[in-house]
Amino acid sequence: KQEVTQIPAALSVPEGENLVLNCSFTDSAIYNLQWFRQDPGKGLTSLLLIQSSQREQTSGRLNASLDKSSGRSTLYIAASQPGDSATYLCAARSSGGYNKLIFGAGTRLAVHP
Amino acid sequence: NAGVMQNPRHLVRRRGQEARLRCSPMKGHSHVYWYRQLPEEGLKFMVYLQKENIIDESGMPKERFSAEFPKEGPSILRIQQVVRGDSAAYFCASSPPSINYGYTFGSGTRLTVV
């Protein structure tokens, strides 16, 4: 059974810092891993999708890496801005369990000016 | 190309009433997933459907909850005889048949049971 854990649960940083959010998963037999952003009271916005054959994906100031063998993914945010404040969720799509996405509890990020 | 459409955005029901949540997947997406997010908690899988078939309902409570995805029309998540503990945000996602694509989520339906 796939379990996804995110560390830290919450993070508060000053504007301009580079950040690393961590995600670990127990079952390395995944098809892909997806990072999402959720603003308070809103839906989920997909940020990056990494296939199991890939090591990383980049979009603007965001870079996500994947290490299947160790069951870890990291989301790197460069030069953080107040507008980055949100909850960041990672989700793993396992090869078992009908391929559904399993979510971590999220990292709540606050970037203050 | 419209995204995943969920309605209503907000739904208030009295205890004992029925709640019906609708989800129209993205064009070209034949797989639909429902998730529930309780206050201050993560997203929990409920059910995975394809047209006219329930593929995996392992996350759905055995009683009072049901889901369908008919040949025509949106997917429906139905909660009968709602209780206060059903108050949550319900999110629908869709994906193409290929596992190489990610999920696209709707904006959710926030159910409040009074």
What is the topology?
The complex is a heterodimer of chains A (113) and B (114).
Chain A: E1 4-7, E2 10-14, E3 19-25, E4 30-38, E5 44-51, E6 56-59, E7 62-67, E8 72-77, E9 86-94, E10 101-103, E11 107-112
Parallel strand pairs in A: 2-11
Antiparallel strand pairs in A: 1-3, 3-8, 4-5, 4-9, 6-7, 7-8, 9-10, 9-11
Chain B: E1 5-7, E2 10-13, E3 19-24, E4 31-37, E5 43-50, E6 53-56, E7 65-68, E8 75-79, E9 88-95, E10 104-105, E11 109-113
Parallel strand pairs in B: 2-11
Antiparallel strand pairs in B: 1-3, 3-8, 4-5, 4-9, 5-6, 7-8, 9-10, 9-11
Q: How would you characterize this protein structure?
A:
The complex is a heterodimer of chains A (about 110) and B (about 110). Chain A is mostly beta strands and about 110 residues long. Chain A has strands at about 5, 10-15, 20-25, 30-40, 45-50, 55-60, 60-65, 70-75, 85-95, 100-105, 105-110. In chain A, the strands form two sheets. In chain A, strands 2, 4, 5, 9, 10 and 11 form a six-stranded mixed sheet that branches. In chain A, strands 1-3-8-7-6 form a five-stranded antiparallel sheet, with no helix packed on it. Helices cover about 0% and strands about 50% of the residues of chain B. In chain B, strands 2, 4, 5, 6, 9, 10 and 11 form a seven-stranded mixed sheet that branches. In chain B, strands 1-3-8-7 form a four-stranded antiparallel sheet, with no helix packed on it. In chain B, a hairpin with a 2-residue loop joins strand 5 and strand 6. Chain B is globular and about 40 Å long. The mean pLDDT of chain B is about 95. The chains are: A mainly beta (about 110), B mainly beta (about 110).
